[in-house]
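Dear Dr. V.,

Thank you for agreeing to look over these. As mentioned in my earlier message, I'm a first-year student in the group and I'm still getting used to reading structure tokens, so any feedback on how I've presented them would be very welcome. I ran two proteins. I've put each sequence directly above its structure. The first is here:
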Amino acid sequence: MVNVRVAPRSSRPGLDGIAGDALRVRVKSAPVDGKANKELLETVAEAFGLAKSRVSFVSGETSKNKKLLLAGVTAREVEEAAGT
């Protein structure tokens, strides 16, 4: 499980390091009609080389702070992908 802090409406989408205990992820979409959530799942899946079906919400679908389940990804892999 990974804590994620989402920054919607970003001009530069992608992983953006770690803030506190959360992986920061920037997405271009606005948080309207689930578009930012969909882009978040796609961005995270691509960053870790996973199929989109292997990334799912645990909690926080309506918040900037979310918990995601990344099937088959270790905490170490999250830190490396975030550049820390």
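The second protein is here, in the same arrangement:
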Amino acid sequence: MRAQGTNQVLIDGTLAEKRPLRHTPAGIAVAEARLAHGSEQMEAGTPREAHCEIALLAIGDPATWLAAAPVGSLLRIRGFLSARSRNSKTPVLHVQTIEFLEGS
């Protein structure tokens, strides 16, 4: 099955936790982490508090960048959502770019 359509996420948050950097058998860097987000969004003309934590998965260069970020860092993540695995449909944000927001 080939899916079509837009799948892009841009979210700011705080790096809540991360696992140690690992490598695939082919030597490709892989990093897993969780991002905590909190903001105020408008919904039906009314402000609403939006809070969540989302799982991050970074592969290749983004994995190296994520591994270098200290827990507590304020980050802007751009990527796409996909199921965690074939057996789990829980969404994971696959990181394509990371922007460090400290001092912005």
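From my reading of the second output: DSSP finds one helix and six strands in the chain. The radius of gyration is 15 Å. Does that match how you would interpret it?

Kind regards,
E.
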